Amino acid sequence: MLQNLRMTSKKGDIQLASIHDNGNPVRVLAQVRHLFCLFFPARSFSLVADAFNLARHLYNGRFPGYGPCTTEYHDFSHVLDVFAASARLLDGWLIEGGKASPEEAADLLIASLLHDAGYILESGDSGGTGAKYTRTHVGRSSAFVARNASTFHLEDNRADSIGRIILGTDLARPWKDLVFSDKAEEERAAILAAADILGQMGDRIYLEKLLFLYFEFREAGIEGYSSAYDILQKTLGFYESTKIRLDSTLACTAGLARIHFARRYNVDRDLYREAIQRQMDYLAKIVSDDTANFRTKLKRMDLERIERERSEPRAAAKEEAI
């Protein structure tokens, strides 16, 4: 699969969107399996494959004790973005001589599949969506792994490690306050934390999905975002802060994506950073141009229809209350 693309793609025309499709879970799983099996026995991937299917059940509402995913930014497509990015960064790390056992590599990938499980509502948890747990979702995700370790066929020590790795994705938690079993576990946590940033911001509809993130922040009561347009404006500043995080706190992951793309696709470029920079360049143009509604410039989703559908139930509820 990867070899064929490497032979047929031209250096100048390959982009992240041409090799990653978060609308095709089967293909994403196959790509990750292929990368894993370049270094480890295929049988060691079985736990990851099982976790992948269980994660799909979780987000589809078929996991015992939980309802379906109710957040539209932090959805299963986002999980696939982070899953693939984690595998690519891990591949670059291993190419560079990083060491990991099959179990440690598998646990990193399982952590990527469950890193946002804290957004999923338990059965009977009514009133709002999973967005209400925005501030606490990372801790809830870590606790989810511990609570459901047997379902994922994880021994306690592996579930504990996965939980610690997930905690590294919390942007509000100082990295120095995190506790890891050893330096290697910290490096795996850094890979997931970087993949969480690169995966979501590299999504071809990232800018459009910011509307959903605004809805999530609003429900969670997170201050500082007065409108959907406001979150677009402030994303430029967020981008600058993520660059600092990637190049300082998560410095051990710097260059890993480029190493992966150079080895597997014969393209000596970081396609994640390129995709994100294109998004930010376009976002800067949107923000600087006030001649038209910003929604008309984001054409990969019908934002006006989505906002209209969101506002109509609220208006109807208000009218009924009167």
Give a description of the structure.
The structure is a single chain. This protein has 322 residues and is mostly helical. It has a single domain (2-321), classed as Catalytic domain of cyclic nucleotide phosphodiesterase 4b2b (Orthogonal Bundle). It contains 14 helices and no strands. Helix 11 packs antiparallel against helix 13. It is globular and about 55 Å long.
Write the SSE topology.
Blueprint: H1 2-8, H2 16-19, H3 25-37, H4 46-60, H5 76-95, H6 102-114, H7 137-147, H8 156-167, H9 183-201, H10 206-220, H11 228-249, H12 256-265, H13 271-288, H14 303-321
Helix pairs in contact: 3-5, 4-6, 5-6, 5-9, 5-12, 6-8, 6-9, 7-8, 8-9, 10-11, 11-13
How many independent structural domains?
A: 1
CATH topology: Catalytic domain of cyclic nucleotide phosphodiesterase 4b2b
- What is the count of helical runs? 14
Structural class per helix/strand content?
A: mainly alpha
SSE sequence, one letter per element = HHHHHHHHHHHHHH
Content of β-strand: under 5%
Roughly how much helix do the residues carry, as a percent range? Answer: 55-70%
Which terms summarize this structure?
14 helices; mainly alpha; 322 residues; Catalytic domain of cyclic nucleotide phosphodiesterase 4b2b
